[in-house]
Structure formats: C-alpha cells, structure tokens
Design a protein that fits this description.
This protein is an alpha/beta fold. It has one domain (52-238): Rossmann fold. It is 55% helix and 10% strand. It is built from 10 helices and 8 strands. Helix 1 (10-25) runs antiparallel to helix 2, helix 3 (52-67) crosses helix 8 (198-212) and helix 3 runs antiparallel to helix 10. The two termini are 32 Å apart. The mean pLDDT is 96. The structure holds adenosine-5'-triphosphate (ATP) and magnesium ion.
C-alpha cells in the first residue's frame, strides 16, 4: 500500500504497514498486532510526540547503557519489524550485545529476526542457541543466551511482557524499557521506562548516546536526578492535562 507523506497519520500508517509486512515475513505474530494496537491507543492519548518525560528517560537510558559493564538489547518480532536498523544503531553506539528473544518462541521466527537484524547491519545476534534460563519463567519463555541476557547487568527490553520484566528484575538486572503504556506492569517494574513510540525512541537513544559518550560527569548527574516513579506520574499528568483540554473543545 502506498501512503502519501502528506497524510496526517503517515507515521502511524507506516508502522502498521511494517507490522503487516512483518506478519507476512513470519517475523511478527498476530498477537503482536494486538499489542501494537494497545501501544497506539496510548500514543493517541499522548499526542504522538516524544514528550518531555520521555526525552528525560531516553537520556537516562542512553547514559545507563553507556555505563553498563555488559549491556544487552532484547529484540522481539515487533521491535525487529518497526526498528531493526535503529536498534542496531543503538547497539553499536553503546557497545551492546543484541539478543533475539521472543515471547511466542519458534526456532524459525528467531532465525528470521536474526537475519533481519544482520541485514540491518548487526555483526552478531544471539538467541539462536539458548543455553540458559531466566529464573522463574516457564520453558520456552525463559530461554535465553548465557553470553547475552543471562549475564547482562543492564538489559533494554522494549515492548516487553510484564512477567518477563519482573523476572529480569528478580535476577538483579537493571531493566530499561520502551513502552507506550505508562500503566503496564513492565512500565511499573522497570528501572527506566521510556513512554514513547519505539519508532521515535530508538533514533533518540542513538542520538543521545552519541551526545553523552565520554561525558561521565553529565551521565552521573542525569542518572542521579532520574526518578522513574516521578517520570511515570509526569506522563500521566500530561495525558490528564491533554484530555482535560480536549474535553472543552467542541467536536461539531
Ligand atoms: P504488561 O505485561 O507489561 O502488563 P501488556 O500485557 O499490556 O503489558 P504486552 O503485550 O505484554 O502488554 O507488551 C507490549 C507492550 O508494548 C504494551 O504495553 C504496549 O503498550 C507496548 N507497545 C506496543 N507497541 C509499541 C510501540 N510501537 N512503541 C512503544 N510501546 C509499544
Ligand atoms: Mg503482558
């Protein structure tokens, strides 16, 4: 489908097309389309822009990844379909390992995600031969790579399920996420929650990592000032203010 650039919902329609294409390629599962719909609904309420709290969280996440001993970025089908190249840019920018790690696991789908990331410029992608388990999760949801998620100190898990985010926290990891729903369990349990669309967030993360690299003093200041609970409450305040304003607008 050809979408004219002038269309007011261009970005949103392009993301839908990318996901539909992802389903055809066998990268995205149908459940992933539903998860995207939930994200879209929150994006609509937010106003489909990166709001100030999101930018703050993106700076904090970029700094945390740069400071990590062994940062890992977990990539599922939706992430690969929407932001393969941008995810590779972030990984290269912060020196992170990429691991394909999916909720509805089949070997074939992991292979396709790995191929997609390699075509987008990734040198190495883990996930094909899982040799460890995330404690507390049933098989195959808990499968992961020893050299990847299992031994990471900091994990970026965009568009993640709440149970897995909690299990990673319970393993003592610093958990960073990108999730448009500020109320999800993932958003609540993570150390740094970026409430932004992944299509806007990954490019910002790559840019902010470039800006912060080498400036440890600034990174430390950003991290010491960042408060995830407060950030999430700022997001909810933004939505509330926006809806209150819209409430007084007449639609006829
Ligand atoms: P949880 O399990 O954390 O309580 P959930 O069950 O509602 O959340 P999942 O399907 O497990 O949701 O995870 C997908 C999450 O990703 C959702 O919270 C959704 O809002 C978010 N999401 C979907 N698409 C995007 C996107 N393009 N950008 C950012 N977040 C997104
Ligand atoms: Mg869930």
């Amino acid at each position: 489908m050809k979408i004219p650039k002038s269309h007011p919902r261009y970005d949103s329609l392009m993301a839908r097309e990318a996901l539909v294409e992802g389903v055809k390629e066998g990268i995205v599962v149908r459940q992933g389309l539903i998860a995207h719909g939930r994200g879209e609904a929150f994006d609509y309420l937010i106003g489909e822009v990166s709001i100030e709290p999101a930018i703050e969280a993106e700076y904090a996440a970029a700094g945390r990844l740069l400071k990590a001993r062994h940062p890992v970025i977990s990539v599922n089908g939706n992430v690969a379909a929407l932001s393969a190249k941008e995810t590779v840019d972030v990984a290269l920018g912060v020196g992170a390992t990429i691991e394909a790690n999916i909720f509805h696991r089949t070997e074939e789908r992991v292979q396709k995600i790995v191929r997609k990331l390699k075509n987008a410029g990734a040198k190495e992608v883990l996930g094909l031969d899982p040799d460890a388990r995330i404690e507390g999760l049933d098989h195959p949801r808990g499968l992961c790579a020893k050299a990847g998620i299992y031994s990471a100190d900091v994990v970026l898990v965009p568009l993640e399920d709440g149970d897995r985010a909690r299990a990673l926290k319970d393993m003592g990891k610093v958990v960073l996420t990108i999730d448009l729903n500020p109320l999800s369990r993932t958003s609540r349990v993570s150390d740094i929650t970026i409430v932004d669309n992944i299509t806007r967030s990954m490019p910002s993360l790559a840019g902010f990592a470039n800006e912060l690299r080498g400036d440890d003093e600034r990174i430390d200041r950003i991290l010491s000032e960042f408060d995830n609970k407060k950030n999430l409450s700022e997001v909810l305040k933004h939505i509330t203010r926006r809806l209150t304003k819209l409430e007084s607008v007449s639609f006829d």
